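Chapter summary example.
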Amino acid sequence: MQDDELINILKTDPNTGMTLLLKQYAGLIYSVVRHKLAGQTFCDADIEHCVADTFSEFYCDLDNFQNAAGSIRAWLCVIARNNAYDRLRRYKKEAGTLSLDAEGIAEPWDDTFSVEEALVTKEFREELLREIKALGEPDSTILLRKYYLSESSKEIAANLNLTVSAVDTRAHRAIQKLRNLFGGERV
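The structure predicted for these 187 residues follows.
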């Protein structure tokens, strides 16, 4: 089934559309998630939750898919990979072993790996981290805690002796500065 047909079915008849989407891509997405979480302490239920989250996120973000370049398959694989890494980060955070280096969690080798793309991504991450640190305190700490360590605004506010609204406002303004600095790209 073509991507356009599937999108139309998802919009007109969500139940049928999700059934077709699952039938066509569930095995692939399960493999992607299982591969990313392999060797960790995740059970089949964790992997299945991550797969379900992937399809749910895809459906909720369906309007943005139409504007994106690529196929449903590629979009789902990216969402699945990111969900798996988010689950892994949360697990490591809870275990107290999350590294704060610029690299983050290294991705295993796969067939779609591109050295050029990896280098551009690495350079962008390093530049982004430099610009976050250049924002100064407490903005840099707020962004790192909120977006890298997944702390809630309430936790950050308590640790920095700020109000929750001050944390949210500072985070929003800092993100806007970064978007303006990078021309709205990938931030």
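To summarize the output: The radius of gyration is 19 Å.
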